[in-house]
Amino acid sequence: MARIDAFLKLGREQSCSDIHLAVGVPPMFRMHGDLMPIKFRNLGDSELEGYMSEILSKSQKEKFRQGNDLDFSYMSDGAGRFRINLFRKSSGIGATFRHIPTEIPAFDNLDLPPIIKTFADYKQGMVLLTGSTGTGKSTTLASLINYINKTRKENIITLEDPIEFIHPSLKSQVIQREVGTHVKSFSDGLRASLREDPDIILVGEMRDSETITMAMLAAETGHLVFGTLHTTSATKSLDRIIDALPAEQQGQGKIFLSQNLHAVVTQDLVKTIDGRRRKAIVEIMMVNNAISNLIMSDKTFQIPNQIQTGSAVGMQLKDQALLAAIHAKEVDPDDAYLHANDKKLLQRFVTDPSLLPKSD
Known about the structure:
Radius of gyration: 21 Å
Number of helices: 13
Number of strands: 13
């Protein structure tokens, strides 16, 4: 057993979501959103390099030696499966371990708005799941792919960096490809997937213009594409896609978004009242005629108003979702306030006065 497994096992026994190991500080566990050090000595450079060396392949060691960060998955006999990012910093190396549950959670157990489940029923076009790192995007997408896999006969291709949840083929065929292992890049994987008779393509991260362009092509040519972006609102997601394209393609990008984008879901995690877990809070934008017109007329800044008034078709702003969760006593109002975009909306619910802006 690798020595690092002891830290991973301890972290899982404490129900933490992430384990951080870095030179110069003790191991740290993320518990319900908070990062806390454990009672252990500060890790030394050679010590941590020795721990990591035991779980790296020869090719991974060489890639890291050349100065590259590593993203890979690791199965610990005592603690389960983890997604790992290994990196260098000023004082040495560091690694972050994110636990991946063995069982893919059923969508109905995620406590998400039911309309999100209907996005799996589209036959073509694009659906975006967005949010910062660690907000549950991968879990939501995995549950949607799992739902399709159990209910329809489709050819599903996932492009991930690294592969996280393992999907056995059930009614559907699920082909999982890992960037850096099976394909060179997301864009190369997308280009290849179009020759593999796909019905559904999951793009783990739309991080550059080539990947975005290929994902748009796939969605335009009769495939359903699920993609992720590290953006914190529907409007910012649209702007990110358009801005990532070369100037001469931005007009075409707006046409694509207005005609082929179905929805943008932006996800965040907020502490529950008891502080023992976190609840997913989502902003949902459905692309209807009004939003299509705003995209085409360069008025994306007006989209939040359309989302706010679109509750009848399942749309909601993040702040609306936070307010509803506070009223339902599902989330800690102080943490909800910290996550809000318009903090004035939630000020009256704050219980810790130190969080509020100081008055003159």
